[in-house]
Amino acid sequence: GSYALDANTTGYDNCAFGNNALGSNTGNENTAFGFEALKTVASGGQNTAIGKQALYSNTSGYNIAVGYQTLYANTTGSYNTAIGFKAAQYNTSAASITAVGSEALRRNTSGEANVGIGAYALQMNTTSSNNVGVGQQSLSNNTGHSNAALGHQSGMDISTGDKNVCLGYQAGNSGTNDITTGDNNILIGYQAAASSATVSNEITLGDTNISKFRIPAFSFEVTGTDIRHPGKLYIARTSSLHGGVFCLDYTNGVTAGMTIKDTQTSGTGVVLHISNGSGTVVGSISQNQSNVTYGG
Question: What contacts 24+ positions apart, CB below 8 Å, involve 267-273?
Fold first, then answer.
């Protein structure tokens, strides 16, 4: 194209296709496809720019830009990869960033080692580093450090919060208590929401529809929607006859060890029940605690 590699003097192994592509180049092993792609590069080498004004201001090396104005403002930043319309458009000096998707990491300037995959992922990040956003608009308003979000709009409202993890569709972005400035939180599941927007050091599993937590290999279960006691903590591996709400050990279908029982289903008035490995009762305490028996 017109003025392609126009200023090249000592550079070698360069390819330029398009008006003013590599127009100021004196570096080596650069490839430019598109109008003014890699226009300003001087001594930088091993760059690849595909698209109008991709890597337009670049003076460094080892960058890959694919798409309209991708890495447009990049000057000294190296080892960057940007793919998509205006991906990492304003990056200047940051190194080792990866932006894949329309406007991913668009406003990043000096924040290093960031990964934004998906349209608008980490779009507003500027100087913060070590963030990972995967999914459309994931961490799109982030300016904090070391956050990780996976899923559509996950962690979308985090601003200055650091070291947060959001996994799942709209995790941390349910519309209620969306994390903004809180630090070191973990939110897992569809629309998992923290206890407040500014809370720190908290783990949340699931949204408000999740009512049971299980570890099948250990026969462990926590249920919060027992129909007899709505909203109560319910830990059980007992039979419906015993109706236990807390049990230690469960052997061959009988309650062994210690069980705190539901008196509404047992009908015995016993609230603490101790039995041996065969299920034989060896001690109990009545509901009013005035009747204590041992040995059954």
Answer: 273/242, 273/244
The DSSP call for residue 234 is E
Model confidence over 241-295: pLDDT tens digits? 344 445 444 444 444 444 555 444 444 444 565 655 555 666 655 555 444 444 4
Question: How far is it, in rounded angstroms, from Cα 41 to Cα 22?
Answer: 7
Contact 111, 99 (CB under 8 A): no
pTM of the model: 0.78
247 forms bridges with which residues in the sheet? 259
Q: Which residues contact 240 (CB under 8 A, 6 or more apart)?
A: 265
Give 260's strand partners.
246, 272
Q: What angle do CA 145, 59, 92 make, to 5 degrees?
A: 25
**Which residue type, as a one-letter code, is found at position 175?**
G
**Eight-state DSSP code of residue 218:** G
Q: Please measure the distance between the N-terminal and C-terminal CA atoms of the chain and give it in whole angstroms.
A: 97
Write the Ramachandran bin of 141: left for phi over 0, alpha for psi from -120 to 50, otherwise beta: alpha
State percent of the chain over pLDDT 70: 71
Region label for 203, one of left (φ > 0), alpha (ψ between -120 and 50) or beta (otherwise): beta
Segment 153-170, tens digit of pLDDT: 999 999 999 999 999 999
Alpha carbons 18 and 195: distance in angstroms, whole number? 55
- The span from the CA of 229 to the CA of 71, in Å, is 59
- In whole angstroms, what is the distance from residue 82 CA to residue 39 CA? 17
Task: Give the C-alpha distances (Å, rounded to integers) separating 80 from 71, 100, 173.
Answer: 8, 11, 29
